[in-house]
Please model this.
Amino acid sequence: MRVISLSVDGIFQAAQRGLFTWLAGQDADFICLQDLRALEREMEKPEFQLKGYNAYFFDSGTKHYNGVAIYSRLQPKALIYGLGFASGVDMEGRYLQVDFEQLSIGSLLAPSASSELESQEVKIKFFDDFQAHLDKITRKRREYIFCGNWQMAHTPKDVSNSAENQHNSGFLPHERQWLSQLFNQIGYVDAFRKVNKDSDEYSWWPKGLKDDGDGWRTDFQVVSNSLGGKVEYAAIYKTQQFSSHMPVIIDYDIEL
Model:
């Protein structure tokens, strides 16, 4: 089972750069996109459809702000929009989930804390609520794959200029600690790192150019502990650039 995840910096620009032509040739079972910057009615245009896939979208209700999508070859048993946080921030087109018999796949766009609408306090609250959600669902008889732009990196080898960036949002001590708790205490797995240990594997370039020397790995597929051993292949596609982020491609030994 192949899952591709990409934060697109706006679906119109990504499509113009050839994203959907590329996706059509990837033989993916699921494609999770984030940061569409489009409303659902705009996503229904033919240029944003993929032959052979069911397409699902969740927008923020505000033009040019957020939005997530999942393209699935199989029709899910259920769709979940948002995570139900009391703060309401996750309803801003940040999370969409497709459910199957024993597996759920989510497309996640976390707050970045880089704009007036997304302060560090908003980001901290979001991830505190998300941690509580993950604690709760780990007791369910269900496996999860959370794909998305998590807006933070975990270890120094995930940031090219780690010493210089340790005071910047996305690599702050409490953000790195949150990821450590996620992987070491709550028990979820960074699927990419199960099979790829290289230190120069970055998925995002803040200035938009992958050759500018300031790369971060902020795009994860985070999976239930039981799925960690089913990761067969993981790569970040860097041949073409559709946005400031690169597609994360992971193959799992899973059949639905």
User: Anything to note?
Assistant: The two ends are 8 Å apart (CA to CA). The mean pLDDT is 93. Residues 2-252 form a domain with the Deoxyribonuclease I; Chain A fold (CATH 3.60.10.10).
